[in-house]
Amino acid sequence: MFRKSKLTDGTANGQGKFAFFKAIVTGDPKPTVTWSRNNGDVSDPSRYQAKYDPNSDEHTFEMPNVMADQADTYRCLVVNEFGQALVTVVLNVIEVGFKKNKALQQRNTDENFTTVLKRKSKIRPKSEQTERKDGEIDPRFWELLLSADKKDYERICVEFGVTDFRWMLKKLNEMKEEREKDQAQFVKSLSNLRPIQVNPDGTATFEIDMDLLEPSSSIYLFKDGEMVPYTKELGEEMRHALRQVGKRYIFCMRDLSADDAGLYQLDVEDVTMFSTEFKVPSVDFLVKIKEVAAKEREDAVFECVLSNPCSKIMWFGKNLPLEQGDKYDIEVSEDKLIHRLLVKDCMVVDKGIYSACAGIKSCNAWLVVEADKDVQKGKKAARKTTRAGGAGMDLQKVAQEQQTKLEKERIERREQIKAAKEAAAAAVTTDPSKIPAAAEQTETPAVVSNNTHKENDPSKNVTGVMNGHAAVAAVAAVASAPSVAKSAAAAQQQETTALASEESSRADGATGNNQPHAVAGEPVITCGLSDIYALHGTSAELTVAMNVPSEGNWFKDGEQLNSTTGVTMTKEGNCHRLTIESCRDNDTGLYRFVSGEHSTQAKLVIGDVPELDEDAFHKFSKPVTVRVGQNAAFKMPFAPQESLMVSWFRNGTEIKDGGGVKIVKEPNHSRLILRDCLRTDTGDVKIQLKNPFGAVEATSQLIVLDRPGPPDGPVEVVETTSSVIEIKWNHPKDDGGSAVTNYAVERQQAGQSLWTKLGEVVADKTSFRDRNVTHGKKYNYRIYAENPEGLSDALETPDSIMAGVMILSGPPGAPKVVNASKTCISLTWTPPVDTRGQPIIGYQVEKRKKDTNEWIALNGVTDPIEDVNCSVRDVTEGAEYEFRVAAINESGSGDLSPPSAMVCAKNPNMRPCFKDPEDFVVIRAGNSARVKVCYEAEPAPQITWLKDDEPISPWINIITIEGMSQLVIPSSKRSDSGIFTIIAKNSVGESSFDIEIRVTDEPKTPGPVELEQTVNGKVIISWAPSPDQDLDDRLYYTVSQHDSNTRVWKTVADRLFTNTYTVNNILPGIEYHFRIYAKNDMGRSDPSQSPTWGANGNRILSNGVHSTAVSFERPPSILVPLKVHNSPEGYQLYMTCAVRGCPTPTVSWYLNDVCINSDSNYYITNSFGVCSMYILRVRPEDSGEYKVVAVNSFGQAECSTKLVVRD
């Protein structure tokens, strides 16, 4: 930034003079300074020289022998990695003695400047942009200003480094007039320009209300000068949409990324209507907000931590933006990494999803509000002072670690920049020819820093001065803080003495490197004056340090000063001092010290510490008392003063305007309003009035009245007898701001839910005697404190109090073991013989592990077992236990029973058995196969798996845990099909189970289809079998039919195990199509298409006169042969085949060449050529070769297969 700048518009009276501009620049890391001009370059070292003084951080741009062609606008551009700043200055050169030339030159300059202002700045795509000169303003700057609110002007200027507000506003007004004229050609009005922003659903939008003259006008969207295609609605193919709702146009963009950052423009025809910039900060959530469960009327907190500092993020509640106000508090930590949203006084309607958006990143979480069930119907719940939610971790620690990481990265970047600069400097040092020789021969005047000025001499040089452009708010000025005279003078004196001694010690050996603008031996001001604020009656001292002893004069408001009474001017070595013994009002003014051609000046302001009116101070000091939920107001009047800062504090912490705090600051008073006060707001409230001369404070007290806190516990039992219980408690720690008037006492009998009010006691008594009690019964008590604001929360007795001495029951009978396993032992016992006159409520069971002395209660006295039996599940397998029981009555647990016999926690021995296993599993080839079998056995059995009675392959995995064994085939193949047997064997016995695993895949398409008609109305469909038919005995076929009348496909046959099918009801004149599908357990194959049948061909022609006899006689043939079977013993078996022949053949079944048609162990059928044989239970003797023989008068056909019966 420009800390100080001495550049203003100026005029050179005559050619050949010396002109220079100078500015002091600050920044971290140290910025790079570049000088340039509008028309022409400044690379000629004989005409332009840029110099830098490291002692004062002052940059000087010099022009020896100014010529007329050097009259121009000059720029000083300052850039570092965090931004840039720009200052412009105009230099006019006038030839002495020629007035007309001066007027002519001024007029030409004005005309050229107007022409520049009328020139439009258009955004061009990056591919068409030319490299801008140093100091040239980005065209986007003007586009953003034309659509921005006035409150954003300063931010935009700072971003683009523009510091000349007056020039900017003048040019902007002219551009707005031109733009409005162009817009009037296409629109009637423009309003409600809403810049682009990110929504909680992850989209970004900007809006504009636009009334078009012609609704058919073309609308275009541009991003950084390039046209953006868009749709009417957001869809999957295009990310950008422009939709219209009445006169409102809404631009939407989804799937946001960092590449979406840029300048977006909305044009109608060729005129820009609206421009907005979309920035995507490099930020993410280190800690995201988490779900919050809050009770009704409790505060809820959402917290998150960012990866980079961000001054503000967007908060949304149920898709609506949230702002700071009475309902919500938005907090940001000092390092801007931790962000919080406080939802105050939560109600059930506040339930929903809340989101936090930082750039294009977002996170969301639920707010769940639980209704207060204790509130009576029709009444509102009391306001709670607790907070629910939060991140559940130390956010400060996370933020501190991230801050350290960011700081480390910044240091590394600075070191890289420093190294690059040192390398560049070293390169220049090694090549001295690059240093301009003219720079060493040019005579330069000496200059000073801060408020030091050099006297102008028109006959020797001309100084170019900056106009008001450098004084805009966009450039932050760093000035020394004001102080009271004595401390300021002391500090200034120490600094001046140190600088003077350092300067004098090196005066003889000084070179141009330390003072590049000083001539050896010439007096120079090394430490100038600074502004001082002094109190009335105190002393003030102004000190100036020179590099060498020299004379000088002091001036006040332009008049020279002399030593008088109360004013002393002294000189000590290189230091000159002006001391005012007792400051008065007339000492205020502008003081200046002049030594030769050099001067420095500063203001001395005399004043007083702010004062408060005594009556107003006394009125403010009175305490302010309000009730919970009400507003508290404080007001302090004071006399209007300049530079007065007003601050408010609560309990020593400064409070700011926002949320539940409202601060009003007027010239003659200030007011503080605290809304919806809570009891915790009670404390001191302080106002501070501060000016450069000091501060004054006034303190008041805020008292917030509320219900008292609960009485202080615990409740003490003073006395308990068969007829009286006396209890005692302490006064509450917080009386709610007003004295407790009385205490209310309630009682509840143990085991019941009803509370009964016993009475009240006065506030100075903290005990109560309950005389209405029953001997042996237990009671609970709770006590309330009451003040004028209401009842407090209750103090409740932690344990029940018994009236009188305990009467315990006698012992029950010894427990007996009913059943025992490794996880549970069941017990039973008999009730006690002697109950001692008290009813039994239940029982308490205890256990003891063998080899230990500790008895452990399995249930509490307050949780009795009501029956005379129970199941103990808290046991360790293999351990031995014994148990005992005690009866429970109103007095408590009675005498213990004798212990039971020792019992071991283990299962009884049992033979292995399988629990509901599957006997058939189908797996798709290539997938992993997992077969899980659960079993029960004691002791644990040994598990063995077999495949087809053989050991399983090594690539098949077996996983066995207690009670379950699993077979895993990682990548199954058809060869893995077979009968898998699991065998479980232990000392009691052995069990086995067979599981058939079928590995298959979707069948392949059947072969070609042929159609044949032998009888009118019927068509025989035949097809070649699927290649998978021989591999899968569960494969079958499906036939679908399509005709030209219905034009739909319908299934006419399903589960066909043959390769032919006869279709009926085939009508002439209709086209038919057929599809044949192969199906199995995995699904259906692609269809095999038949040729077209009917309408144009494949018909049997008959004229009724000439007919030809058709013979259907044929020898038998096997359409579907028998398949190989491998069946376990005792299982059912089904064999089938298909036979065709005319006349119908006789079919016989053979086993090992022995006819079995008449054997009752086989059920044989023949249905229209489908021959089947069914065996209900397969026996070992059923193994062998089976053969089917079909015989008619034209021949015979046969097929055979084998059956293997496994154990």
Automatic annotation (TrEMBL):
One of its GO terms (biological process) is sarcomere organization. GO terms for cellular component: M band. Residues 441-451 have a biased composition (Polar residues). It is found in: Cytoplasm. Gene3D superfamilies: Immunoglobulins (2.60.40.10). Residues 710-806, 811-908, 1005-1098 form the Fibronectin type-III domain. The keyword Cytoplasm applies. Residues 1-88, 908-1000, 1115-1204 form the Ig-like domain. Residues 422-462, 495-518 are annotated as: Disordered. Keywords: Cytoplasm, Immunoglobulin domain, Repeat. The keyword ATP-binding does not apply. This is Immunoglobulin-like and fibronectin type III domain-containing protein 1. It comes from Cynoglossus semilaevis.
